[in-house]
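Narrative summary of target 7.
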Amino acid sequence: MINELYFYGKIIAFLLKGNVVRPEIIQRDYDKLSRTYDDYFSRYVGKYSRELVRRLELAPGSKVVDLACGTGTLSLAIAESVGEKGKVTGVDRSQGMLAVAEKKCRARGFSNTTFVEADIRDVFTGFEDNSLDAVTCGWAIGYVNPQDLVSAAARKIRNGGKIGLIENVRDTLAPIRKTAVKVAQELPRHFNQLMDLHFRLPKDSGDIKSLFMGADLQVLDSWEGDEKFEFRSGEEVLNWVLHTGASAGFDTVMDRAAKKECDELFVRLIEKDFLRDGRIVVTHKFAAGIAQKEE
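Modeled conformation, tokenized:
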């Protein structure tokens, strides 16, 4: 009980002081994750990103910006959709992720794609208002102020242009999230910083629609989905977390000197609470939507 009170007291203090994980820390972690990101994440959920592109129904020759493009799953699907006369600009803060995206682009022979290292909050300064046919953002609106980002994107697309979003919802990866909180509650002395991503994630597709309506866009489509992952042990879960974006920024939440202690406690707790019939089931949940700027 004392540990739990100490833990929540720290959360309040962190919020008041703005002691949250900085964007450059998240960028550093994505650089490290870039080599394994596709193997552990994109190979399973990339199909949902490609489904977003299919539903966008982009016309050949379209000019599109893909925010937080990562290893290029959305960007390459868009490049194929818009054809040689189209233009795709993939934007990301992580040099490591961009390097993977560029390598995949060269391997596919695309000449209509450019990748830019930049913060997705600042990139629109390089584009005129009403100049883009579409903007997409996959798995990243929670890293910024979502409404500000969508409103900025809305100013840059032409009349009839579209915005497509796909994002984790708040209760995604519930066993992992709940176990991580328990670790911090049991070891509050090692709890150093707050990861505030969770507060900005959409609750469901209704929140995605609200973002669009807040930017005076016409909602064309919205949906939800999930992908289930099964693990045989807590060690397998931890290994998966450490090789995907699920761990980006979280290294600094707990004291790095106590990493071994925290990891071992995570394994014990997730097995105790969620190991059933020899497996731990973790569900990755997401929401997506498409909106259009009225002509």
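The chain has one domain: 2-292.
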